Every structure is written in C-alpha cells, then in structure tokens.
Amino acid sequence: MMKKTKTVAVLAAVLALLSLPMNAQQKLFTLEDLNFGGTNFRNMQPQNMWLTWWGDQLVRTDVEECYLVDSKTGKEKLLFTLADVQRWVEGSEGVVVRRLSDATFPYPGQPVVSLKDGRTHILLDFKAKQVIWKNNVAARQVNDWNSVSRATAYVQNQQLWVADGEGREHQLTKDGSREIVYGQSVHRNEFGIDRGTFWSPDGQRLAFYRMDQSMVSDYPQVDLFPRVAAYEPDKYPMAGMTSHKVTVGVYDLRTDKTVYLQAGDPTDRYFTNVSWSPDSKTVYMLELNREQNDCRLVSYNAETGQRLAELDRETSPKYVEPQHPIQFLPWNSDQFILQSQRDGYNHLYLFNSKGQLLKQLTQGPWVVMDVLGFNQKTKSVIIKSNERGHLQSNVFSVSIANGRRVCLDTGNANGVVQQAQLSASGEKVYVKFSEPTVPRRILLTATQAPKNVMLLNAPDPWAGYQQPQFDHGTLTAADGVTPLHYRLVRPADFDPQKKYPTVVYVYGGPHAHNVDASWHWASRSWETYMAQKGYVLFILDNRGSENRGREFEQATWHQLGQEEMKDQMEGVKFLRSLPYVDAERIGVHGWSFGGFMTISLITNYPDVFKVGVAGGPVIDWKWYEVMYGERYMGTPESNPEGYQKCSLLPQAKNLKGRLQIITGYNDDTVVPQHCLSFLDACVKAGTQPDFFAYPGEGHNMRGHASVHLHERITQYFEDFLK
C-alpha cells in the first residue's frame, strides 16, 4: 500500500510538472551567472576560439595545445602541446611555460613560436625543439617587443629602458618620476592613444612619449586601508586649467643616442598618432591645438629630430578628433592612407609622401570603423564599416585603384563583426561575428575571391534558462528628422494585458553605443536579470553617440546633456504609448556619462522618473579632464553659459523621486568631487538622495565587487519602483 501511494504521488508530481508552462521548467539566472565578476559568468559566455596567424596559416591556440587550421576545410591538425614545449625548454634556465593560449608566430615561414610567461619571453623553434632566444623583462611595467630587432622597450622604476636583441640593457632616461613620465600613454588616453612607445619598422629606432606633468594640479586621492589613511595624489588637469606638456623622443639602438622631435613649444598642444615611414627614417604625428579645431599632419627627420613638412591640415568650427595614425601602402612607400571625417563621415583618403591628396578612397553616409590591413597581391585595403546599416558591421575589401568594395563576410547577413584579423599577406582573414539570435560565428575566407569556411557556430550558452524577449525598433529624434535605434527587453512571460515597471538604461555620450545587431541586440546581462524580476527595459542611442557621422555626433557640442535629454524623452513618449508600460513607474539608470544623464533626467523631468540610480556621474564639466571636456564643452571661460546650463548643481533642488548615487571612492576618471558636491547641493536645497561608495575602487567596480554593485542597483528599483 505504501509503495502504491508513493508511485501515485510521484506520477501526480510528474504530470503536474508537465502541465506547467515551458518557461516554468527553465532555470532562472543569478548575478553569479550574468555579471562578469560572477562565479559562473565564464560558463554563460558564447563558445569561442583563440586564433592567430603564422604567416598565411591559421593557428588555433589553447591552454595546452596549438593546432593548424586548414583554410579550405576548417579541419585541425595538432602542431604541438604544452607538454612538448615544457619538455623542450627544460634545459633553459629560468624558463617556465604554463600555457599556450597567448602564443604568437612572428616569422612567416619559420617554425618559431613566441611565448611569454612570468618574467621570461622566449622564441622557441618547434621543429628543432629548442629555445633560440630569450629575455627576462617580460613582466616589466611597459613591454613593447619588436620582432625584427628583437629589442624590447620597457619601464622600470619610472625610467625608460631598452633591452636589445642580445640582452644588453640601455637606460634611456634618468629623470623619470611621478611628474616626468616616460614611455606611457599621454593626454589621458584620448585621440586613440593607448601606449607610449613606437618601434620603427626595422626595429632600430624607438619613438616614445615624455610627459611633464609637474605643472598639473594634484587631485587629493586617499588610500583608506592603512591604519592612518595615506595621501595618494593623482595628476588631474581639469577643464580650463593648466595641462601637461608632451614631447616625443627618438632613441637609436645603433648609436645609443636620443633626439627629440623639434615640434616647438608643447604648451596647450596634443601630439597624437605617432607613426613611421617604411624606411624607418621619418616620424609622423598628428598635432592638435588645445581648442581641438586645428589638426596638422607633420613629418620629422628621425635621425636629427628636424621638422620636415606639414603634409595635411584639417580645421573645424567645432572640433577635429584624430583617432588613427597614417598607414603606408605596403607596395608603395610613397603613398599612405589617412582617416578623416572631413566630408562628414570617417573615410579613407590617399596621399603621397609630399602631402598631395590623390583621391578619396571611400565615401557615403556611413563610417569606416577600422582598417584591418592590406592585401598586397590585389592592392586593396581591408576595412570594417557599417555601410550596410547603422546597426550592422561587415568586412570589405576596397581596391586602391578604383575604390570598388567587396563584402568578405558573406555569412554575416545582418550582424556585427566582433573581431577580424588578416593573415601576413592580407590574402586571408578570419572574422568573428554575432547576430541578434546568433551568439557567435567564426568564419575563414580569402580576401580576393571570398569563399567562407565556417569554423564555429556557437550554441546558445543560455539554453535551458528562462530568457527574456529582446526586440529592436526605431523612432524619430527630437529634431523631427533623425532616426534613432532602441532596444526593448521584456520578461519571458510577458503579458501585454499587464502593467510593468520600466527602467530606461542610458549612456548617451560620445564614443559609445548601446544598440546594434549583435546577440540580443547588444543587451547588457543586467537587463536580463531585471526582466526576470518583472521589469521592462528600454535603451535608446541618442544623438551624440558613435558611428553615425559628424553631424550626429556633434549635435551636442557645447551643451552636453541637453539634446541627449530631448531624444531620451522622445523615447519616454514612445514608452508611455505602450499599453503595458506603467507610466507611474518609470526609472532610469546609467553609469559615467550615463550617470550624468540619469541625474539630468530625474531632475529636469521630476514628474516622469520615479527612481534613478546614477553611477560615477559627472555633475559639473568644470571638474572633468581637459582633453575630453574641452573637446565637447570648450573651457568654463570660453563657454560659461554652456557650463552653467549643463551643470547639475542647480538641479539638486528639483529632485522629487528616489535617487541613489554610487561611486568608486578612488575614482580617478570622474573624481569624487562630483558626487560629493552634488550631495552638498542637495543638503542646501533640502532634497534627499541616497549615496553609496566603494572604498578602493576606481571608475568601475572590479571582480566580485561588480556583482555586489548590480545587486545593489537591482534592490534599489525593487524597493522603490516595483
């Protein structure tokens, strides 16, 4: 009797389970699944392959193996294993290799792999099965290795050094300090700058940045963790204030001497996009005035530092923003490509070495997003662009002779290129891309006669989980003309008869976008978490965001936040037209520029937004850095009305809803003065925001602190919007 009762009970339970809706049987997400700091985050990412080129042969690298990939079939053949490598390096003192995932193959046609691990960098001949070269500077602060000379530039104890190919170390500087910085990024990483050393093609000369920031004000950051908090000042040039001075040196390995480019007084000037001539005799720079409306391409003699010629000049009534160094044609050392927005969209222009414009290579109401390299055989340049639509990106081959374009990633009908890399000759390319319903695909193709070989079609890593509904659409900007793209995320069990609390996620600033045709329309994982909790999420790319051309981007000039708010409110108008959006429960959240937008919206439209969470927000642009701030706002002296209009301090009195402000207490990008000054303004106005700080964290929360952050953001909406 007992057995029968148990069987019936089990059967009843199974039948009850089967009668539930399908999504009720699916797993629910946690922030440990969805947030990059979460314990299960890696398992929830689309399957990937790590690929690199050995000449024109594709190699897949893994932690313990390297495989050759057949370009016609995609089939793999084992090249060598980690165990092989560890056996081959046993006789080399101090060499330890723990993984192969970072392996590179710098010499086409030669069986040589480059491996860095710990303090050692080695070249291993995997056919001879022996180490043929090594150095011991792999772990230094800056590590810039040249494969031709095998010399390495590095920074140690604030001084710039070069270890030549034979291992001899050369100290280039002696006055390096916190105030005199060598060999590192300058101008706060604006203008496409992400490093401070630049090897010549022959590896015999090194151009490098020297930044004197002794005249720049110290911002009083504090280390809270010692028993007595320690003063750790940070050099931070604010808009309208004294900025640093940059010069460019050139070190010659053959003479062991350094000269500096004779560029004139560096005061209030930006030196960007350093590059070399193919013969290693000439250095090129794009030079910008502090107002950022006058950009000049200038050449210098690398041996003497003498200024040779001004090759191009671009001016604008608003701003010019150089982002890319010039690139010489591999088959013609007298011609180079310059990227510019001078016709309203970022395109390619062909010049000769005398500075004569030969032709515009690409044109149209779309942007060149990247130059991947060149195919020397077909004499073409390989680019990534959004020619096929604002939300899409593709890889194209562009003929230098006639400008004819051929799309290479023909398997990518309506998606986004995540990564693409050319082989050494430029005759092959692998492309990683994604589509709204495709997590990741990887294909390999030729750049002359494209024929795609699919290397990977990643399965949905979220299979078995209750996934929200992801949609995309367009609406018209506040100017009544411009189309804007939005993403709408709704709960998996969405019921159009219900009323849902809705959160507007916003960034809205330059050099970023939130919506494209990648997986889930580029939805952030936190949106999935919120949809699972019963919210609708809305994300709109307003005017001022990237990849839409100069007029679209510069609509916000000298009045940051104003046009962006108008566009976001068009989005809110659309939301309120939806019968399932509860107009009484609309919230807003954003970080950095999005934090600025969040407070702008909740204080300028206090009767619309009930709850806001602003992370790392800019409050007043006079406290932001010179390079970015002055590009878009000018200085407080040249644009006082704009600074006053865009400041959030006078808006503190308008706060009605619940607002939580969150910051990294040691934020060196949007310094704590922003948040604290707004809190002071609220105290004086009698309004009541909430505030939370992460001690020791910078502009973004690292590691598992990010999980804590997003749980806090979520809980604030749960407490006050739901």
List the helices and strands and how they pair.
Blueprint (H helix, E strand, L loop, with lengths): L1 H18 L11 H4 L15 E5 L2 E5 L3 E5 L6 E6 H7 L23 E6 L2 E6 L4 E6 L7 E3 L6 E5 L2 E5 L5 E3 L8 E3 L14 E3 L5 E8 L5 E2 L2 E2 L6 E2 L2 E2 L9 E8 L4 E4 L8 E8 L5 E8 L4 E8 L5 E9 L11 E3 L2 E9 L6 E6 L4 E4 L7 E8 L4 E6 L8 E6 L5 E3 L8 E7 L5 E8 L2 E9 L6 E5 L11 E8 L6 E8 L9 E6 L19 H8 L3 E5 L9 H4 L8 H15 L4 E11 L1 H12 L6 E5 L10 H8 L6 H7 L11 E7 L8 H13 L4 E5 L10 H16 L2
What does this 3D model show about the protein?
The protein is an alpha+beta fold and 722 residues long. The protein is built from eleven helices and 44 strands. The strands form eleven sheets. An eight-stranded mixed beta sheet has the order 37-38-40-39-41-42-43-44, sandwiched between helices. Strands 12, 13, 14, 19 and 20 form a five-stranded antiparallel beta sheet that branches. It has a four-stranded antiparallel beta sheet with strand order 1-2-3-4. The chain is globular and about 70 Å long.
